[in-house]
Design brief:
By secondary structure, this protein is α+β, with helices and mostly antiparallel strands. Helix content is 41%, strand content 27%. The strands form 6 sheets. It has an 8-stranded mixed β-barrel, surrounded by 5 helices.
């Protein structure tokens, strides 16, 4: 019998010995010879065969052992067992004749060799024995196949003989694919040496247990805990039975735990910040090297001691309060300061976290970051941020914070703006160095002579100073302002020369004149300018009779701010008509303000206020965005028009003008070529800057028009150098076309000049047929005016476009 067949006996040998009935294992080879392979004790006892009698595999030996009486032994049912059950006449080893019923049960067939079980007993006993054997076999099958673990058999060369369903599923192969594979094909190559070592131990009849990395059919790596048991028959290892448990999840958890421990170790031991573990009373339990270096104490000196005595006394109450919050199970962050061993102050940013184990708080983790350098820098920066660099007086930022604090202490506050008279002429005639020295001298005199503890002095900028003054009666403010004026009677000595200067003062009062600092400063500033206009060298309270114009400008500014919030602004659109075709090719967006308080306010009354106050930036952006939004809607309706938008000088020079404009165009998804920016001639006073900005505008694909041409900047050089698309002829020239030869000549000249420079012309304010005919005759490209259409709302414009018919 070859080794392959012998190895298959391992799973039956135990069952054979356990049977209480005579049983033997037979091997038929090529249907000619029967080998007697083994018997159980019941078989030996039944036939009175001595235990030590030789039973080596031999066909003759098989019949001799059974004492079978046949004339032609070659035809005995042991060789030709067609029915498997047959009568058998034999005798015991002591010569006692016996007639028994023999039953042959095939167990395995492979390459012409049949392994069978021979049972000697009566039929009833045979049936009972068969049932028991089948049960054992089924139990084994169930144990092997249905186990939640991987069960397998391999031969002594390492090739799989059997694999249960769990194993096939784990390795992502069918049973047929696994049978015949070598075990190295399912073990990770890094563990080949180890698995070979343990397999060698099994072949030496040892039970082996090992954890290995496995590889399935798709290349996924897992972990197995393998127990390999040698199947020993007659002293030889015939097969290896293995049980493998999938421990991938456990291994992943172990790896994760190891990584977590390493991260914790790195966080604790290698952290550049101080990391400490305290007990619940705040005593040191563990600390890292960084803590020792930060505090200047060794771990042995700190462990067991409370942290609080190391904290600066003025921080102790706050620190203890914040530290105690962690006892509620929450992480807390705060800043504190401590003394190190050298009694140096160390500022710390602290993070404390509860240490919870098994649902119970066992301690407190703490991470302390040294922020001493940051704190020192903050103090330096605060000094710079809150102090004027020239005079070293508190600056505007300090004033804003002090005003909020002053509100808590004072019921009434005076805001006094002091401005030096004719300071510009001193700068121009004596130089900026003398001007700076004068500002410093003024600051020193004001500080030295102002002893009232209720007054706080600030440099506002330029030659302006601000006083915040807490008072009870208005007369106190008047007296304080008079004292300030008296300080300028004596000259200042600057570089051994006497410099005389006076001051103008404007005063506003809280809460009468305003409830916020911005409003109060505006009103004080207006009052100060009124002092300058009315002779200088005196103080004026806001609201003084005669300063109505300044008051009106401030009122207009405040109403403009409210108008932005209340959405009181709107746009109207005036059509632009191409003279040759009579078609509407564009519109100009015009801003309108309908104030709830003032009614309709003309642009010439509020635009200047918006520019002086800086509101023009926000207002101009709103106009552009609204115009582009409407244009996008018109495009969807099929109206392809150019949109002209007026841009103020303040907008044009704003550093974020182009970025904001480009973003709005992208947001509204409008072709840049449809937007025309109308600028005034006054912008051209800074030619080099303007040329660069206009070039950027053209690179964005936008068009540029010069508005009110001929009424502003006189130089024509910029027309040659600047990338301009349109010249808009001012309405004042168009008005005189019918009666004034000079106006007609000017209009004709502008049209000719524009065309010679490759520009188009748009005439504003055309109201009569005669004006339109003249403009058309002179070659003007487009007209905008009442003759074709007044400024109209978006809804009216859409109605107008629907019914409009081109006419010449």
């Amino acid at each position: 019998m070859n080794e392959q067949n012998l190895m298959s006996l391992g799973e039956f040998i135990t069952a054979l010995q356990a049977l209480p009935y005579p049983a033997a294992l037979l091997l038929e080879k090529n249907k000619e010879e029967v080998f007697f392979l083994g018997r159980n004790r019941a078989f030996s006892s039944y036939l009175e065969i001595p235990e030590n009698q030789d039973t080596r595999p031999d066909p003759k030996n098989c019949l001799d052992v059974l004492n079978i009486q046949l004339e032609d032994k070659s035809r005995h049912p042991l060789i030709h067992h067609g029915g498997h059950t047959f009568p058998l006449r034999t005798m015991t080893a002591k010569g006692k004749p016996m007639s028994v019923t023999a039953r042959i049960i095939p167990l395995r067939e492979l390459a012409g060799e049949v392994l069978s079980l021979l049972i000697l007993e009566d039929k009833r006993e045979q049936d009972r024995l068969l049932q028991k054997l089948n049960k054992i076999h089924l139990q084994y099958d169930a144990f092997f196949e249905q186990s939640p673990d991987i069960h397998y058999l391999i031969d002594t060369r390492g090739y799989f003989l059997e694999m249960n369903l769990k194993g096939a599923e784990y390795f992502k192969r069918t049973k047929e694919e696994i049978i015949g594979l070598h075990y190295l094909e399912v073990i990770h190559e890094l563990d080949h040496r180890l698995v070979n070592e343990y397999f060698g131990k099994v072949l030496e009849k040892q039970i082996a247990q090992v954890e290995l990395r496995s590889v399935n059919k798709t290349g996924d790596v897992g972990y197995l805990d393998i127990t390999a048991i040698p199947v020993i028959i007659e002293g030889e290892v015939m097969e290896v039975f293995g049980v493998a448990k999938d421990i991938s999840k456990r291994k992943d958890m172990e790896i994760e735990l190891l990584e977590s421990e390493e991260r914790y170790r790195s966080l604790f031991e290698d952290n550049i910040d101080a990391v400490v573990t305290y007990d619940l009373e705040g005593n040191f339990l563990h600390l890292n090297k960084a803590t020792e270096e930060l505090m200047g104490y060794s771990a042995e000196e700190l462990i067991g001691k409370p942290f609080l005595p190391f904290i600066l006394p003025e921080y102790q109450q706050f620190t203890l309060k914040e530290f105690s919050k962690v006892l509620n199970g929450h992480s807390i962050r705060y800043e504190t300061a401590m003394f190190n061993r050298k009694q140096e102050v160390v500022h710390l940013h602290i993070t404390v976290m509860p240490l919870i184990i098994g649902g119970e708080m066992k301690g407190i983790h703490c991470i302390g970051k040294d922020i001493t350098n940051r704190k020192n820098m903050e103090r330096s920066l605060k000094k710079v941020a809150y102090q004027d660099h020239l005079t070293h007086l508190p600056n505007q930022r300090a004033m804003m914070e002090d005003f909020d604090r002053l509100l808590e202490d004072e019921a009434r506050i005076g805001v006094l703006v002091l401005d030096l008279d004719r300071f510009k002429s001193i700068n121009d005639n004596w130089g900026h160095e003398v001007g700076d020295e004068l500002l410093k001298a003024v600051s020193q005199r004001l500080l030295y002579h102002v002893h009232d503890h209720r007054a706080k002095l600030y440099r506002y900028g330029g030659d302006e100073y601000i006083f915040l003054y807490g008072f009870t009666e208005r007369s106190e403010v008047e007296s304080f302002a008079e004292n300030l004026q008296s300080l300028f009677k004596d000259p200042f000595i600057i570089h051994y020369a006497e410099v005389s200067v006076s001051s103008s003062i404007g005063i506003s009062l809280y809460p009468e004149d305003g409830e916020d600092l911005e409003t109060l400063l505006k009103k004080s500033d207006n009052a100060m300018y009124y002092s300058k206009k009315t002779g200088r060298n005196h103080a004026t309270f806001y609201g003084t009779k005669g300063m109505e114009r300044e008051d009106e400008a401030l009122r207009m500014e405040l109403l403009l701010k409210e108008a932005m919030k209340k959405e009181e602004f709107s746009l109207v659109y005036q059509p632009q008509v191409e003279l040759l075709s009579g078609k509407i090719t564009g519109v100009e967006a015009l801003l309108r303000w309908h104030s709830q308080e003032l009614g309709t306010v003309p642009p010439n009354q509020f635009i200047k206020v918006a520019e002086d106050s800086g509101l023009i930036i926000e207002l101009g952006n709103w106009v552009t965005k609204k115009a582009l939004s409407d244009l996008a809607k018109w495009n969807q309706l099929g109206y392809q028009l150019e949109m002209s938008v007026n841009i103020s000088t303040h907008q044009f020079y704003h550093p974020e003008f182009l970025l904001c404009l480009e973003r709005m165009i992208k947001d509204e998804k409008v072709p840049p070529s449809q937007l025309v920016l109308e600028i005034t001639e006054s912008i051209a006073s800074h030619a080099e800057v303007v040329q660069k900005e206009l070039q950027k505008i053209k690179e964005l694909g936008l068009k540029v028009a010069i508005d009110d041409f001929g009424t502003g900047y006189s130089s024509l050089k910029y027309l040659k150098d600047f990338p301009i698309d349109y010249l808009k002829i001012d309405k004042s020239f168009v008005d005189g076309i019918e009666e004034d030869d000079k106006s007609r000549d000017i209009v004709s000249t502008i049209i000719t000049l524009a065309h010679n420079l490759g520009m188009l012309t748009v005439a504003e304010g055309a109201e009569t047929r005669k004006q339109v005919d003249f403009l058309k005759m002179e070659g003007c490209d487009s007209v905008q005016g009442y003759y074709y259409g007044k400024p109209m709302t978006e809804a009216s414009l859409l109605d107008f476009l629907t019914v409009y018919e081109p006419h010449n």
